[in-house]
Amino acid sequence: MIHEERLQRFTIYMCEDIxxxxxxxxxxxxxxxxxxxxxxxxxxxxxxLLKCLNGxxxxxxxxxxxxxxxxxxxxxxxxxxxxxxxxxxxxxxLVFLTSYAEYAIRGYTVNAFRYLLKPLxxxxxxxxxxxxxxxxxxxxxxxxxxxxGEMLLPLQEIIYISAEDKCTVLYTKDRHYISDYSLxxxxxxxxxxxxxxxxxxxxxxLYHHKGTQMGRIIxxxxxxxxxxxxxxxxxxxxxFHFLGENLI
Length: 248
What we know:
- By secondary structure, the protein is an alpha/beta fold.
- The chain folds into two domains: about 5-135, Rossmann fold (3-Layer(aba) Sandwich); about 140-245, CATH 2.40.50.1020.
- The chain contains seven helices and 15 strands.
- It has helices at about 20-30, 45-60, 80-90, 105, 120-140, 185-190, 230-245; strands at about 10-15, 35-45, 65-70, 95-100, 115, 140-145, 150-155, 160-165, 165-170, 175-180, 195-200, 200-205, 210, 215-220, 225.
- The strands form four sheets. The protein has a five-stranded parallel β-sheet, with helices on both faces. Strands 10-9-8-12-11 form a five-stranded antiparallel β-sheet, sandwiched between helices.
- The longest helix is centred in the middle third of the chain and has 18 residues, at about 120-140.
- The protein is elongated.
- Mean pLDDT is about 85; it is low at about 1-5.
């Protein structure tokens, strides 16, 4: 059973004036509840969304992880709305929805993360969340407590973490770091960012997967680590979920 606290959490705002499309989005998010913890708010107009975002900015509260905008909104179209949102937050993830592919190019004028065709499909939404998750992982850093002190280490640089004697060792391409955190603690913190426990001694970064060979996982560094038969099916499932076709 997947526990909610171990799911990747996303706060999503959607601006959509057509009820049918909004309800479709909510239904899709409901079906994805075993994979993600999604908190979705639907706004029916640009003014309604802008008022909410202005309130968040004044209170210095966190903006949503994702804002979905229908390009063909009444009064104020989605592109103009996206420009106003960009003035408030330059790094918020904007995704445009449209029924016409030829409108999509306009979305990139406001640095849109992606455009999606309506009606939105469950697979398209899942792929979007996976790709946003990848972007988060690229930017995410973890505080590593080593024998020499504390340091920030980008998650993408970590190839795998090993439990050795009474410490853990974090391996990157060029060096390794000794930490006194337990492997279990790292597993709990990093699971949602694409790390998987393949063995009682090893936690690997799925983004560095190269292949499997005779019950072992081959990583981008050339390291070959054992994986138990019991964990292999779940490993393959997670690998497909996080990487799809974009294997290193």
